[in-house]
Amino acid sequence: MLKKLIINNFAIINKLQIDFHHGMTALTGETGAGKSIIIDALGLLVGSRSSIDFIRTGQEQLKVQGLFEVKSSSPLFAILDEYGINHEDNQLIIKREINRKGRNVCRINNELVKTNVLRQVGKFLVEIHGQNQQQELLDEDNHINILDRFSDDDFQKDLLAYQQLFNEYQDKRSRLRTIQKNSQNLVQRIDMLKFQIEDIDSAKVEAGEDDKLEDEKNQLSNFEKISSALQESYRGLSENNVGVVDALGNVRDQLEDIMDYDKSYKELYDSVNGAYYQLQDNAATIADQLENLDFDENRLDNIQKRLITLDNLKKKYGPTLDEVIEFGKKAHQELSEIDIDDETEANLEKEIQQLQNKLLDLAKDLSKKRHQTATFLEKSINHQLKDLYMPNARFGVSFSSLDDNNLSNKGIDQIQFDLKTNLGEDFKPLVKVASGGELSRVILAFEAIIAEKMNVETIVFDEIDTGVSGRVAQAIGDKIYKVSQFLQVLCITHLPQVAAMSDLQFEIKKETVKDKTETQVSLLDDLQRIEAISLMLAGTKVTDLTREHAKELLELAQGEQKRLD
User: Fold this and answer.
1) Which residues contact 378 (CB under 8 A, 6 or more apart)?
2) Which residue range or ranges hold the Rad50/SbcC-type AAA domain (predicted)?
3) Which domain holds residue 305?
4) Are residues 326 and 228 in the same domain?
5) What would the pLDDT profile of 353-378 be if each residue is shown by its tens digit?
């Protein structure tokens, strides 16, 4: 249970310390005084989302601390052990600080923890019921979770076993989808590789082939120019009487006659003689070129076509023929290494079908037990609704089944809560027929039934009695008091009948201190409670009559408490 709550710099709260006790505690006061702010601060201690907007104006950080006393049988001790948090005396001190830079510091028994740990621990400490719980009841997707909360331990074990098997089933289905997708991609890849290999191999590409063909194309394209140049060159070198070779031969003969007379003549002779034989060789080479020179128009056309083919390959597979050839080698290698494991896919499909069959058997068993729980819940809720002055209302649970191939982690059931509020009416979905006051009573009916099974230490009702009055208000007060026999209950209320049923009553007020608004909390004694409940009855002006009425209401409440005890 919550024993102490300390709040600093939270919204309009400057400094506040509240000591709580067993039983039912009412928090009363005018709207906007800060009642829900206190609950918001408590929510922070059990892992609610933080915000720098919570920090009091003009302050740099807020701090919330709580002292909890926990039953030795609570499951939360296993979580504390998991994170190495000491809990020798079954007490927990939780602290949370938030500054304007967004820094969020959480401690449990002085050990730093993350907010997710705070949430894990908090779900066994405090459960807060207010507008969110109405939304939970209005969410049909959540009805199956609510129903399962009323099931016994054997069902919970079976559900856990089912969910573990379901997770394995989902993992295998996910793996199969991945394999099938990969297989499809591999088939597409194989087709692409085969096309690329065929494209390159059919061309029979040779390294440097494009350069050789370019040279040959240039020769054939310029055949007439080359032929003319070679002929003119040969005539200039070799024609009798006018050829350069004959002229140079005559020079050589003249120098040969005088080369023995001077060393310089000998050097001239050697130079001219070498040039003479070089020109003879050149003339012979030119003659060979002329003899071999041949123009083939078809060959030029074939070369141009071949170069187009090679250019296309280079555009697709690499800027050079060497890279095209290397691309082809890698494609061959990759194709040889690809393996589509049809056997693995077939085995997975078989395993998935076997798991699905097991899941269906377990899901049907869960469904059978849910129907039994639903029967119990319907009877219990309807009994509670009678106590809450809805004698003609009937609560029902309707079932529908999922397709065998669309199992959920809850099984095959889809659950919907139904309600008919008057005689002669048909059952309709709860979300469509319940008013605000009726929803409040349905929620309270649920809580009254489940109170004995809950693993939390403290339950908070944040204006759960909204939308009701008169004898219904008294009935709600009785139900909340009944819940407090099993759990510590904190109840924010504007109803005097509910406040009167509490063991303790705190009054929350706003005061102005040095031009700033502050929330103050006071534990009321017997006389102060009469005054506070008188104000709740009268609205504005308290008279002796309303005081007498308040006193009478408190006395009647004491009688109700004894009756309920």
Assistant:
1) 395, 396, 397
2) 4-233
3) 204-337
4) yes
5) 999 999 999 999 999 999 999 999 99
